[in-house]
Sequence to fold (389 residues):
Amino acid sequence: MKIGPVADSQLPVQIEAACDEMEQTYAAGRYSKITVTRNWSKHNPIISGKIARPSAYRWYLRRELIRLVQAGAVIDIIPAQERVDLSSPQLLELIDESEFDHTRKKVFLFGPERVELSLQRLEHYTGTRAEDFQRYVLLTNYQMHMDAFEQMYPDCIQPTRARVQMRAYHQRTASNDGISIVNIGVGPSNAKNFTDHLAVLRPDAMLMVGHCAGVRNHQELGDFVLASGYMRDDHVLDEALPRSVPLTPSFLLNRYLAHLLDERKLPYRFGVVYTTADRNWELTLKLKLQDLKASRSIGVDMESATVAANGFRYRIPSATLLCISDKPLHGQPKLPDVAQAFYEETKMKHLEVARDALLWARADYPGGLPNSDLRAMDEPLLGGPEERE
Fold:
């Protein structure tokens, strides 16, 4: 199928037909290859990639292909190789990203075999279909936030089986522009694992909603923390992304979060979030204090920097909304009675701020948050000639 310059009224029809054809090709046992010719580009006139299970992110394909044709691109779609057998001994060779340059891709960031495996992993971990994931994703490690989400959206899609490792709930809309929430569990390994696989769905934003230890004198339990940057003591992505690479959250998401916190008169601070792999970091306090003081950190958690690092690698705008649950440096460690009271008091307002920030982002940028700050210097852009490559 070829899609070239076409009247705006006919373009959505042609793109829907193209998506139907790719789904049929996939059902027949083959991937599809998309080739995009962009005559306006001096450096990347032709970009191409292969598509696996297009139904899982049809909303993304529809949106981006329409944008490209509107800009004057010509798109060719043909059947590609047979679908990979996930039981094949060759699978690991096909998905090996040890030497993959994540800064050189955008439209087709992942090969079809990687997409195939990641979609299966997402469904295994969450107990929900990949097609049910929405464009805006909340990440947590507390069931209480899942419960609060269910109260907000009683009809949300839930796991189809009782015991899953990372429960997911989806407030699904017709165009997948609703909100998903996933309990990823505790620690940077879980955060990396889940976001590695989530990335193939190309979400518009992901927001970590968690708790942290406050380390400043004038912070109180229940105060919020917005990350201005991250100190990476998680180490799970050190080989994939050097620790010298600066990581910052999405400015737009932070702006929405700060405005909502101000509007609701909820106390918060901007500052560096220190993410560690050591849940008992207080037991080696002298070593940790050196980093905390040098970085001027205001909170310690176990996932935020990992989520931010994978958001950077995979071009997904991300941010962090943490709530201080303990202050171990000030004689307020996390203890059962105090923790439970704190959880009950904060869980709903915490999740409401996170949800409303994503809804605001959706209203302001229905086509996806701008993410030029996540692009590489030589990366093919998705837009038209006005973007200049």
